[in-house]
Design goal:
6% strand, 3-stranded antiparallel sheet, mainly alpha, 70% helix, binds zinc ion
Amino acid sequence: MATKSGSWMMAVGAFIAFIGLYCLPAAFGSDSDRTMLGAASVMISTGMLLIASGFYVKARSLGTVAAPVSASANGKRPRKSACDRCAVQEPVIQCRVHQLHLCADCLSKHYDFRSCAYVPSTRRGASVKSAAGSLSQTVSR
Ligand SMILES: [Zn+2]
Ligand SMILES: [Zn+2]
């Protein structure tokens, strides 16, 4: 809908700018009229402004279409990926030895320098990557 109104604004703007251009020769004719020059330039600039506004409205409508997709993706994420110990916070690191995804708080409680080996949490990495390329994720599934 916004895309349509943007197209209309651009069409009307082009029409007004065209009329302005059409009036321009009258300002430079044999019997030149200074007020005609002013009127023509006003019409041209108004037309250009309308065209630019049309572009703006179109670009904004594209942005609002894209935003809900990423918002819903972010909304689902905290429920899916949670710390294995407290199940509240987002895991930042994974203990490879015990197969535990841990948040920063639980990491300090879990830490055992003799056995534990940590890697960045795969859950978190997947969520970060999916924001950039959800297409590749759907292919892998
Ligand atoms: Zn935790
Ligand atoms: Zn561990």
